[in-house]
Every structure is written in C-alpha cells, then in structure tokens.
From TrEMBL:
GO terms for molecular function: NAD+ kinase activity. This is N-acetylglucosamine-1-phosphate uridyltransferase. It comes from the Archaea. Residues 22-41 have a biased composition (Basic and acidic residues). Residues 98-112 have a biased composition (Low complexity). Residues 17-41, 83-112 are annotated as: Disordered. It comes from Halonotius terrestris. InterPro entries: AcoX-like, ATP-NAD_kinase_N, NAD/diacylglycerol_kinase_sf, NADK, Put_ATP-NAD_kin. GO terms for biological process: NADP+ biosynthetic process. Gene3D superfamilies: Probable inorganic polyphosphate/atp-NAD kinase, domain 1. It holds the Pfam family NAD_kinase.
Length: 375
C-alpha cells in the first residue's frame, strides 16, 4: 500500500487549558502554556503501523506535518510537500520537554488549512491509496475537500477537542489496525462546529462533506444527542453528595441537569468543580481543576451519545493526572445507553486507558444503575 500521512501539529492544543479548540486561538494557547497533542498521537499510530506492516510505503509532508514522526517510527518516507511556516521536529519536542522551556510550544507551527489541502493534493498526485491524518473535525473537512474529486478514502486519528465526525478511528492504535486490515470502504459524514459558538455553549454540528472511509469495527460513530429524562438521575446524584468530597463535573446536557440540581448553572460545555455547596471553578482548565481538588475527589461524567466516549472527546481538561486523583462516576439517560454497546476512553495515556477498562456501573435514574463495559 502507498499511504499518505498528514499531521495537523496544532490540533487539540487548546483542550486541556479550556479553550475548546484552537481555531483563531493558537497565540492564546501558546501564552497559556498549551502543549501539542498531535505529535504524540502521530507517534503512537506510526509505531503500531511499523509493528503491523513495516513494508508500507509512506508519502508525507515535511516537518511538523508528518515527516519527522514517520521517520521516528522507522519508515523512509517520500516527502512531497513542504509547509511554508517554521517547522518543529519530534527531537525539538523532546528537548523542550526535558529542558522545561515553556516560552515556546513544541510541535506548534504556522501551518494552515491551506497547507493541509495542498499537502493532500500532493498525495493525490503521488497516487496514494489512503490518506491517514492526525487532527480534528476541521482537519477532516480540509482533507475531504482536497479528496472531493477522487475516490481515495481517508481515515482520521483523533487529536482534536471536538471529534464529531464518523471518519475517525477510536484510537491511534485502532487506526493503524484499520490501515492494515480493511478490505472495503463506505461513505461517512464529516461534521464540524463553529468553535466560537462552542465556547459560548452552543453546539450546532454542520455537515461539511461525505467521504470514503475504510470499513472496520475500530471506527467511531457520529455523535448523537442523548434523549430521555435526566431529572430523576440528577436528583439522585444531588441527594447522595458527600460534603467532604470535591466533585469534578464534566460537560454536556446530562451534566447540566446535575449542576442545576446542585444549585448552580455551571458551564454547559466545560468542566466545573463543586464541593459542599460551593462552586470552586467554572469552565476550568486542567491546572485549575488540579488546584481545586482536595484529598477526596470524584469525577462525574456522561458518555457522548452514539460514540460512548467517557474520556477523550470534548473533555481533555480531564487529563490523566486529574483522573488518577479521583474516583469516576458515570451517568447517562436510559435512551443514550440504548444506542451504546460499550463505553470508551482515549486519555492520551494507554496505561491509564487499560486501567479504566472493564465493567463500569452507570447511573441511569435516581436509584437505578446499569453495567456497561469500557473497552
């Protein structure tokens, strides 16, 4: 196979610091000390690909849009496009992390949506059979646009904050497995939302494209909005709170009902921290959550409808460090669970993902619970 590999180096940078994306916010993300997410996600998918099939021929763009990560995995790629902006390599990232330098954001660059489209057009000119990209919904839309006049399929490695589209694998490792194993393709939707509206608490996904995607069990579903009454569920959570426990409350409409039952409005699409009647943080970043946590902590989250993700989609502020300092309680309406076969996590920490896997109790009413497996 001749595989086109593209990395959006700024995808997901704004997540843990509470920016809910990087559209128009790259400079602010840098100032807040945001770290790149995409290079490590690229490293994981390419390392797995090297294990599964080191003979794959890879076409890519120059650093930081793919070439550095591809070479680090042991491949000898054909570089067919060079981004105009300054590049930062995998080695630069490691040097920055080891030095503790926070003045620059390793892996970041001035690459643009035009770079993405032009790189993919160069892949097409070099006869790739599949485009594997690392990014979010905006990257997916740009890749799909560049492929619109072709029959070449695309496959996403999720690295954005708001991964709504059904063209992504559920994890970097699953993406590599799909590349090696798929034998047919199907049409799937590329969705995106306006990040400014998203930051203001409004979610209106827009269909951006319909793209060819490999058919496999490791693909995530499109996000669906949950239905069903959550008032009793919220009442059950509120009636059982412990005054000594700090509660870290995730985003979403189900969680909004719980926040209301606790007596505050909160952030509809952000993470809030509450203890014994006091709101400690609203729309908090990872650092703000850690600062507000106490000796005894519980994270309450609701899975994304249709996808089943508990961590890793829409709530990157709930980082591995935050999760490791808390118990986890999962809540969901009955109708949301009816559409799910399993729950999923994608925390950027494979060891933590493995620790979280297994059977999980999910509150669906004031007293009722169901058991669902995290896979």
């Amino acid at each position: 196979m001749r595989l086109g590999v593209l990395v959006n180096p700024i995808a997901g940078m704004g997540g843990r610091i509470g920016l809910k994306g990087t559209d128009g916010k790259v400079a602010e993300a840098r100032q807040r000390g945001a770290e790149p997410r995409a290079p490590e996600r690229a490293r994981r998918v390419l390392d797995r690909l090297a294990e599964r099939d080191p003979s794959i021929e890879i076409v890519t763009a120059g650093a930081p849009m793919g070439a550095d990560a591809v070479r680090a995995a042991g491949f000898d790629p054909r570089v067919v496009y060079e981004p105009a902006g300054p590049s930062t390599t995998i080695d630069d990232i490691e040097q920055t992390e080891s030095s503790g330098d926070t003045d620059t954001t390793a892996g970041d660059s001035d690459t643009t949506a035009a770079d993405t489209r032009e790189a993919v057009e160069a892949f097409v000119d070099n006869d790739v059979e599949l485009v594997l990209f690392v990014g979010g919904d905006g990257t997916a839309a740009d890749v799909a646009e560049a492929l619109s006049d072709t029959v070449i399929p695309l496959l996403g490695v999720p690295a954005g904050v708001k991964v709504y589209s059904s063209v992504f694998a559920v994890s970097p490792e699953a993406a590599a497995d799909i590349v090696v194993e798929f034998d047919r393709i199907e049409q799937r939707e590329v969705m995106d939302i306006d990040e400014e509206d998203y930051r203001a608490g409004e979610v209106s996904p827009e269909l951006r494209a319909v793209a060819s995607v490999p058919v496999a069990d490791g693909l995530q579903s499109a996000k669906q909005r949950g239905g069903g009454s959550v008032e009793a569920l919220a009442e059950g959570v509120a009636s059982g709170v412990d005054p000594e426990t700090t509660y870290v409350l995730g985003p979403g409409s189900t969680m909004a009902a719980i926040k209301s039952a606790l007596g505050f409005e909160g952030s509809p699409l952000g993470v809030d921290v509450w203890r014994d009647g006091e709101v400690l943080a609203v729309d908090a970043s990872e650092d703000e959550i850690l600062a507000a946590m106490g000796e005894q902590n519980t994270i309450i989250v609701s899975p994304i409808g249709g996808q089943g993700f508990v961590f890793g989609r829409g709530n990157p502020q709930l980082s591995p460090e935050v999760i490791r300092q808390a118990d986890v309680e999962v809540v969901a309406s009955r109708s949301k669970l009816d559409d799910l076969r399993a729950l999923r996590v994608d925390t950027d920490d494979p060891e933590l993902d493995a620790d979280l896997s297994g059977w999980q109790q999910v509150r669906v009413g004031k007293f009722e619970t169901r058991m669902l497996k995290i896979v």
